[in-house]
């Protein structure tokens, strides 16, 4: 039989990662309807991504998938299609190479319910290559990017950030009424020799509109190819190249060999 938990108890239960919890989720029946959107440019969705989505707690929801040559166009199409459903309250972007915790959506919705000023919620995930930098930015501008150092924050902290990768992102519906279109777009810089990704330009528009983004440091996603290096990076924070290479050597048995073959001795 499912247990009935008070709201604070639910939060405590949801803070335990890698554990499935049975509970009466009637307290979450707030009229939520979440469009779970998966953009892809190669028509592929990793099976581990689908398993993590299947086991994730979800309120009323539906899936949308968009294949196309560029991710910015795919994201924009998914947004427009989701907004055609007047009942949609949130859009959850999940990239097709992500493994997400089962409590991601539950925690994100609880944060937004507790603090109505939060417009976007992100989890933590890391780039797949050394030095495995986080894809969450405390501050960013034209000339600098100050990345989130996960080791600087306790697990379960709610941290305000300027920008994040869009691999695991929950966005309120009304955000798209408040920011400029196109919502996602690649931006070419330096005579076309550099570019800002579609996720960063989205957050540039968020910042211009005075909207708020937070990251929950207990929601650690795996970027497929990074394997079990992810929790280690979370503990140690930002790694310089030499330190990261040394750590790879010290933890060979804990690292996904398939995703990091070039770092292994023959």
UniProtKB/TrEMBL annotation:
Highest taxon listed in the record's lineage: Bacteria
Lineage: Bacteria, Candidatus Aerophobota
Protein name: Glycosyltransferase 2-like domain-containing protein
Cross-referenced InterPro entries: Nucleotide-diphossugar_trans
Organism from which the protein derives: Aerophobetes bacterium
């Amino acid at each position: 039989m499912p247990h009935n938990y008070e709201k604070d108890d639910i939060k405590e239960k949801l803070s335990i990662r890698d554990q499935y919890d049975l509970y009466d989720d009637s307290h979450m029946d707030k009229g939520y309807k979440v469009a779970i959107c998966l953009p892809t440019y190669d028509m592929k969705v990793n099976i581990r991504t689908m398993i993590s989505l299947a086991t994730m707690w979800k309120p009323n929801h539906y899936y949308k998938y968009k294949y196309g040559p560029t991710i910015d166009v795919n994201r924009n199409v998914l947004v427009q299609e989701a907004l055609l459903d007047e009942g949609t309250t949130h859009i959850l972007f999940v990239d097709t190479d992500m493994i997400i915790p089962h409590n991601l959506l539950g925690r994100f919705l609880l944060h937004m319910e507790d603090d109505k000023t939060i417009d976007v919620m992100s989890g933590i995930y890391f780039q797949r290559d050394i030095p495995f930098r986080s894809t969450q930015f405390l501050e960013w501008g034209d000339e600098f990017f100050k990345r989130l150092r996960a080791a600087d924050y306790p697990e379960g902290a709610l941290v305000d950030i300027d920008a994040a990768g869009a691999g695991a992102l929950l966005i309120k519906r009304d955000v798209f009424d408040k920011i400029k279109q196109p919502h996602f777009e690649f931006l070419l810089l330096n005579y076309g020799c550099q570019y800002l990704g579609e996720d960063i330009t989205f957050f540039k528009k968020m910042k211009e509109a005075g909207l708020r983004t937070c990251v929950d440091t207990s929601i650690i996603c795996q970027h497929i190819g990074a394997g079990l290096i992810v929790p280690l990076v979370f503990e140690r924070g930002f790694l310089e190249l030499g330190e990261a290479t040394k750590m790879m050597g010290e933890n060979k048995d804990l690292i996904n060999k398939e995703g990091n073959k070039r770092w292994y001795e023959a």
